[in-house]
Amino acid sequence: MRVTRRAFLQQSGAGVGLAALHSLLQQEGRCADRNVGPIRTPHFAPKAKRVVVLWQGGAPSHVDLFDPKPGLEALRGSELPESVRSRARLSTMTSAQGRYPILPAIRPFQRYGECGMELSTLLPHTGAIADRLCLVRSLHTEAVNHAPGVTLWMSGSQIPGRPSFGAWTVYGLGSLSSNLPAFVVMTSSDVDKTCGQLFFDHYWGSGFLPSKHQGVRLRAEGDPVLYLADPPGITRELKRGALDDLAALNAKHLAEFGDPEIDTRIAQYELAFKMQASVPELLDLAGEPENVLALYGNDVHREGSFARNCLLARRLLERGVRFVQLMHAGWDQHQNLATQLEVQCRDTDQPSAALVQDLAQRGLLEDTIVLWGGEFGRTVFVQGDVNRRDAHGRDHLGSCFSMWMAGGGFRPGHVHGASDDFAYHPASDPVHVHDLQATLLQQLGFDHTKLTFRHQGRDFRLTDVHGEVVKGIVA
Q: Whole-prediction pTM value?
């Protein structure tokens, strides 16, 4: 038998019950059960069992959308105090800028809902669901560039290679569906692709976790899932028989070596077979009522749009997908804030609110976490020529920004934390990226310090060696 001593010691327990696996694999549908059910036991009763991340790539400006500072109007064009600016890292795009003139929010704010939450008038649909939102205005991160910032949010480290948040969630809770992946990703961008960000695979990767936990991307163009379709002439019956034979061979290999990637291979072949029927049904919106389509806005009819992806996210969640990650590019407004911020809000405001409302109407919001935000915020000072509408914007700011959550046991109609007078640093109740990660995991039933995976002699976790649960934002 081709087994090394190390493999034998590490995997000797994995062979229990494998002798019966071959016969089980011959029964239609039994292989798919390898994708269903919890992987680990939650540490306490979860408040949520699903997550949908509405990721706004490029970093939405909290100064213009979520963090009202009416006192800035009197300071328009004046220099941001060096004592404020010098305490935060800047990107190289403005770190050597000669002046740092203050630019107040480009649109007014108003109060929304019974809670009176102040949001930009650029977000009327989000304002309409203010009583369902938990808005955090005191987030901060070390990252000041996009890829490290997204990677830190998604994996707990600025360096690629760690498991993503979605992978950790699926590793902990497993799948609810035998016909669809537990973790699904969709991407979109503004139509003109004015300031799009690249979306790297490691944003939904499994890192050193077994690869069955990585996200599966649904594409807007071509085949929705690569390599899912059969070549011409291959019938379902022929494919079924081939998969049964292949599963038996893989089961023999698994019994011999105990490699978890072989177990992944068995499960994913079977899942892909079932997805050949489930994915076309998922993407067919013909049965959606007109009032639901109207809720998401006209852009829901455009394939690949953020609005369409939001509707598909609801369909995925109600079909048992555990973690849905929507990534929308277009918020990196260094030079076109005045012309493009409104466009981005128009593309994302209504569908984001619609998803929350749709989930609530179907009784799914209570145990689903909806998370909206980007990798960091934007500076209160202007980048570029403030006198030219098409040639100014805001630089990256990691020292303070905002995000909102809905459902999943988060406090509705609540604003947590506050920034200073310039929306530049937290002034009260600061929340680090790792703190929010720890809180999200708590709502899913896990102590973030105990949801670990041993790799290269160390127990790793999403929050690395940091993070405290933010008690003030949970109901």
A: 0.88
